[in-house]
Amino acid sequence: MGAYAKNVRDTAKSFWEGMSITLSYMFRKPITTQYPDRVGVPVRDTIPARYRGFLEVDMDICTACLACERACPIAVINIDVVKGDGKTRPKLNMERFDIDIGKCMYCGLCVEPCPTGAIQHTREFEGAVMHFDNLTLRFVPDPTNPIPAYKVPKGSDAFPRRPLGEITRKLIKAWDAPPPPFPSMEEAAKAKEHGAPKEGGLDPSAMGRQLAAKALSVKEDKPKLQKVLEEAMAGTDCGDCGYPDCFGYSNAIAQGKDTATDKCAPGGADSKAMLETILVTLKTGAVPAPATPAAGAVPAPATPAAAASPAPPAEAKPEAPAAPEAPASPPPAQDEIPLGTKPPPK
Amino acid sequence: MQDFIDNLIRSWGHDPAAWPWTQFLYLAFMGAAAFIVVNFAAISAGIFSWAERRVAARMQSRVGPNRVGPFGFLQWVADAVKLLLKEDLVPAEADAVLFRAAPYFMMVGFACVFVCLPFSHKLIVADLNIGIFYILAVTALIVVGIIMSGWSSNSKWSLFGAIRSAAQIISYEIPAGMALMIPVLLAGTLSTQGIIRAQGGWPWQWFIFDNPAAFAAFFIYFISALAEGNRTPFDLPEAESELVSGYNTEYSGMRFSYFFLVEWGNMWVMSAIATTMFLGGWQLPGLSPARFDALTGGVAVIAEIASLALFAFKTLFFVFVVMWLRWTLPRIRVDQMMNMCWKYLVPASFAGALFVAAWMLLVHEAPWLGQAMRFALTAIAAVTVAAFALRTLKNLRDTGDKFDFTSNW
Q1: Could you report the per-residue pLDDT of B54-98, keeping only the tens digit for each?
Q2: Distance between CA B369 and CA A94 in Å, rounded?
Q3: CA distance to partner chain B, nearest, from residue A29 (Å)
Q4: How many helices, marked H, and strands, marked E, lie in chain B?
Q5: What chain A residue is nearest to B386 in terms of C-alpha separation?
Q6: What is the pLDDT of residue A346?
Q7: Which residues of chain A, if any, have pLDDT below 50?
Q8: Residue B282 burial by Cβ neighbours in a 10 Å radius (0-12, 13-18, 19+)
Q9: What does the pLDDT read at residue A304?
Q10: Does domain A55-180 have CATH number 2.40.128?
């Protein structure tokens, strides 16, 4: 009987408590966030600071080291670099810096190697668009007007970055924006040449011989030799070579501690070829002859400036006619590796 | 309503008995009343569907439908339009005629109840002298519709749901009917208006506080009404975890919406009956029915509107309680449901009827006892409500929240 009475009491009590609890919730503020239109502050400002949203690149402090492009496991980032001679035009120019947000898996691997913190995850996440192509963020708005790479001041470890999210926010298209125009025949043909050296670009073999001549003249002066060697590198201080900066790597080569020429990833095949030319020159004591017969007319060691300039037509386009015509001898063949090719594994 | 029409005819200078158009006028008014009542039932059911979702949402710290119209109030219109436009599907193996007919049986059984439901002092379609008996009788028609839909669907889930529902409704008719007999005993009439008139405007004049048996009868009726309306915690016929959706599993579109119209409309019906039988109906405090009848002109109109508002308020409060219970209590088992009905509610309601009969004799001898009991029960109820409100407020404060009913709608 006691148990029976207890059951009755428990029933009454649980009704009493349960009903008062549900009623009390009736008079509380619902916790629902009425995304997207009835929120007090934008939702992106309420999510944690380390949220991995859309990527953003501040082109003002991008060193064009390509570390992010290499780090990306699914080729979301596409950067086209045009090289200049460092005098009439900057040494490194970016014609294209695309990030395909539609493909990005937000792993953050591109953010890790960036030497200046130019590429970062923002807290932007609203990417609803009518057309998939609108998800490609173009950080170089106009390919005909390339953006020069940022040269890191020696010893600096803080970089003037624009407020995070500002740039990407501007690039995000409205959800119903029209798609980018379908490429015309000419544009499609041009796109096929992607990765080929650009007209007016640097001729790595000529520059390599020029640097080799310089290096030969300062063979015994290690600090000066290091400077020459550093010139053959991309100069982004990306640290991809395993040394803290370009100075470290070039100094190691100058001191003879390092003989690998393929460590400069941003410089790619060009840097490798130039470094090899220099090292071969130092070893043999003579600058190697130019590769193509046409270029042979130009006395390379005597007039390096002329060889370096983009003027000679045969020099300017070593790529296109090379395959059928050139009687490729081993060292010049190095010169002909296209810019877009991946550097050999270390 | 007949008196009203007769008076109208007399005011035009005819004798209702001799005038040839009297019967046509009766017919026209019947049609108009039926139209108004059916639409009231349908629209109130629609509004309850929205209200229930908002109440449910707030009790679960959510917002609920709030985009269509102000506070999402027009959501039920949008849902109704959607349901009307959907395909009217009849399963291949179903008994097509019965399948199509079943929702109308439900609708008829539901709409007929409104004939005897009072709304205010004068507002009632027909004040039958067997009012509450009629209501209990036509409600049983819903069972026919449920069995018909379950059987004709030719689906085991539908049939299980229908059988459960039929068993439940027929079982709970008994305690519900016996509990409603107690106000009938106290009032000495079956007419719904007569029962309201036998009560008074003040709470201690209501039948619920007349004696302990009437107090218990109110709860017996309310529990039974929940079960008859297939409301949680007695929603076994549509137990979605076991039976998909019960007897309406195979239905779609408009016919499906009829079942839900009946379910939500039943909330008004059960609450209105509870208000009528136990809570003084439309009675205004301090205005006896005799004086109410004697009112004329603008005062009569104001009093009429006030009585309508009071009746609606009491009814809507119980509609809210029904929703509130749904979002508090879990579903009970079939055996528990049957136990509760046959082992507790049925004996209790019969005992209550006997007690009331004896109590009426006693009060007849000692009227002061009746008065004392009325005031005592009213005081107990008031204290209970106050304690409950404090407990609710404590629950609210204990979690560090504050009373906030207005934000985030």
Answers
A1: 999 988 988 888 888 888 889 999 988 998 898 888 888 888 899
A2: 99
A3: 5
A4: 16, 0
A5: A20
A6: 46
A7: 293-342, 346
A8: buried
A9: 44
A10: no
Spell out the alpha helix ranges (H) of B126-231.
131-139, 141-152, 156-187, 192-197, 212-228
Q: What is the pLDDT of residue A202?
A: 60
B254-290 residue pLDDT tens: 888 888 888 888 899 999 999 999 998 888 888 888 8
Separation CA A331–CA A333 (nearest Å): 5
Here the tokens at position A146 are: 């390339």
Contacts of A8 (CB under 8 A, 6+ apart): none
B361 conformational bin, left if phi > 0, alpha if psi -120 to 50, beta if neither: alpha
Cis, bond preceding B70 (omega within 30 deg of 0): no
**Predicted local confidence at residue A193, as pLDDT:** 65
Return the half-sphere exposure (C-beta side, CA atoms, 13 A cut-off) of residue A222: 9
Check CB contact under 8 Å for B391 and A25: no
Of the candidates B338, B327, B332, B226, the residue with the CA atom closest to the CA atom of residue B274: B226
Q: Spell out the alpha helix ranges (H) of chain A.
A: 2-26, 67-71, 166-171, 185-192, 204-217, 222-231, 246-254, 268-284, 293-296, 304-308, 313-316, 322-325, 330-335
Considering CB atoms only, which of B66, B324, B404 is closest to A22? B324
Residue type, B239: A
* pTM beyond 0.80: no
Q: What is the predicted pLDDT for the residue at A194?
A: 61
pLDDT, tens digit (0-9, with 9 covering 90-100), for A145-176: 888 888 888 777 788 888 888 888 888 887 78
What are the sequence ranges of the domains in chain A? 55-180, 204-335
Mutate to test the interface with B, among A23, A32, A33, A38 (most CBs of B within 10 A): A23
Distance from CA of A43 to the nearest CA of B (A): 16
**Interface mutation vs chain A, best among B52, B55, B63, most A CBs within 10 Å:** B63
- Name the interface residues of A facing B (CB cutoff 8 Å): 16-32, 34
- A-chain CB neighbours of B317 within 8 Å are none
Q: In this predicted complex, what is the ipTM?
A: 0.82
Boundaries of every domain in chain B: 86-394
| Paired tokens of A73 | 């496991």
Residues of A in contact with B232 (CB under 8 A): none
Residues in chain A with CB shorter than 8 Å from the CB of B395 are 20-21, 24
- Cβ separation A30–B61 shorter than 8 A: yes
Contact criterion met (CB below 8 Å) for A119 and A65: no
- State how far the alpha carbon of B93 is from the alpha carbons of B48, B97, B160, B238, B301, in Å: 34, 12, 17, 22, 57
Using 70 as the pLDDT threshold, list the residues of chain B that sit under it: 1, 240
- Give the pLDDT of residue A322: 43
Q: Note whether B58 contacts A30, CB cutoff 8 Å.
A: yes
Name the residue facing A30 among B63, B324, B329 (closest C-beta). Answer: B63
